[in-house]
Design brief:
single chain; alpha/beta; Trp Operon Repressor, Chain A; five-stranded parallel β-sheet; 9 helices; about 35% helix
Length: about 250
């Protein structure tokens, strides 16, 4: 089981997402544990103030260090030792490889920033890792925390039921996923690819790999630079490039 502790100023943000679908079922099965911790509970003033004006002036407010450090210190008193992640635009870009790595941890603390962020002294001395989910601005760290939680939880055995579900996901093998079809066989005049109805698993696997490579080449060619490709994959890519160059890149 992996334990998730989410430190936030807005605990109500998580009520809906965590009570639905995969995350809810995983909690019920005891595969993951999720605690939502209100940072305001660790203030000592009557108004539960968690932010203050930045030294040196400037727009916005900064999250005060004392409540965050009190919360983190309390979490550290009980095992297992937490891996503390601060969700921030300056963090490393979160990806599938990172999700697989984090799924090996026993306990993750997701610290949600707000306003102009947290006091730098907290970041320097209490945070183990900083993550960003993309180069854009969000209201706070709650949405990134949900993204990290969801992506990591999928990697935990038993959460999806069928482990092959995540092994075939886009990015898991370094490239995009292949196209999917289901019933009805014909929809609005268009049939599902005949090969998928053939029952010939080897041919189906080869078709899916080719389609995944073609989709990656078209939409995310940058992924191919780092993807673990076999010699056969590279030959397929050369074929696909020739087809594109000749204009014969219709769906098979």
């Amino acid at each position: 089981m992996v334990q998730f502790d989410i430190l936030t100023l807005f605990p109500g943000f998580f009520e809906g997402p965590l009570s639905e679908s995969m995350l809810s079922r995983a909690r019920e099965k005891g595969l993951i544990s999720i605690r939502i911790i209100n940072i305001r509970d660790f203030t000592t003033d009557r108004h539960h103030v968690t932010d203050d004006y930045p030294y040196g002036g400037g727009a916005g407010m900064v999250m005060k260090p004392e409540p965050i450090v009190r919360a983190l210190s309390e979490l550290k008193e009980t095992p297992p030792v937490p891996h503390i992640i601060y969700l921030t635009p300056q963090g490393s870009l979160f990806n599938q490889e990172c999700a697989r790595h984090l799924a090996q941890k026993e306990r993750l603390v997701l610290l949600c920033g707000h306003y102009e962020g947290i006091d730098e002294r907290v970041r320097l001395h209490y945070v183990d890792e900083e993550l960003s989910i993309g180069d854009y601005v969000l209201t706070g760290g709650e949405t990134p925390a949900l993204v990290v939680l969801d992506a990591v939880a999928r990697m935990i055995p038993g959460v999806l039921g069928n482990e092959e579900s995540f092994r075939n996901d886009s990015f898991y093998t370094g490239i995009l996923d292949y196209p999917h079809y289901t019933r009805p066989e014909v929809f609005e005049g268009e049939s599902a690819p005949e090969i998928l109805l053939s029952g010939h698993h080897k041919n189906i696997d080869e078709w899916r790999r080719r389609q995944a490579l073609a989709r990656t080449l078209k939409f995310r060619p940058d992924l191919l630079e780092k993807a673990p490709l076999s010699d056969k994959d590279r030959r397929l890519l050369e074929e696909l490039k020739r087809e594109i160059a000749s204009g014969d890149d219709r769906k098979e």
